[in-house]
């Protein structure tokens, strides 16, 4: 927790959320990674720890890419990648944070919060967000899926 300003605070909290998720998944066996947890769910992102983590990683990149696109770039969304090892996801989570950190290096604190809708971005789920709102969503997204994985681990160990 050593970055300066509002952008720095968002990055510090995002990094902590990702590190906490990494701590939760480190002890998970590669066999448990692909075990189907919920066969009845219609949400393909919640069938296994593997699908959850692939969703978290892809979403992390999409949040950063949305910010880049808001600033005038045209970057396509990545495809979802599935790993057969926890190590693959640990590496991906590190890379998604580094990518986000590089994107936010170009953002000034006064650009985070916008009241003019023309300066906001439309998310794929249909909400209009400024950069601060999107980063807050990104943080909570990681935390919610970390909680989900903790609960799954409890079920698997019983």
Cα-atom radius of gyration: 16 Å
Instruction: Please identify the oligomeric state.
Output: single chain
From the N-terminal CA to the C-terminal CA, the straight-line distance is 36 Å
How do the strands of the widest beta sheet line up side by side? 1-2
* Helical run tally: 5
Give a structural overview.
The chain is mostly helical. The chain has 5 helices and 2 strands; from the N terminus they run H-H-H-H-E-E-H. Helix 1 runs parallel beside helix 5 and helix 3 packs parallel to helix 4. The relative contact order is 0.19.
List the helices and strands and how they pair.
Layout: H1 5-25, H2 30-33, H3 49-70, H4 86-104, E1 121-122, E2 128-129, H5 131-157
Keywords:
single chain, 158 residues, mainly alpha, 59% helix
Question: In a nutshell, what does this entry contain?
Answer:
This protein is mostly helical. It has helices spanning 5-25, 30-33, 49-70, 86-104, 131-157, and strands at 121-122, 128-129. It has a two-stranded antiparallel sheet with strand order 1-2.
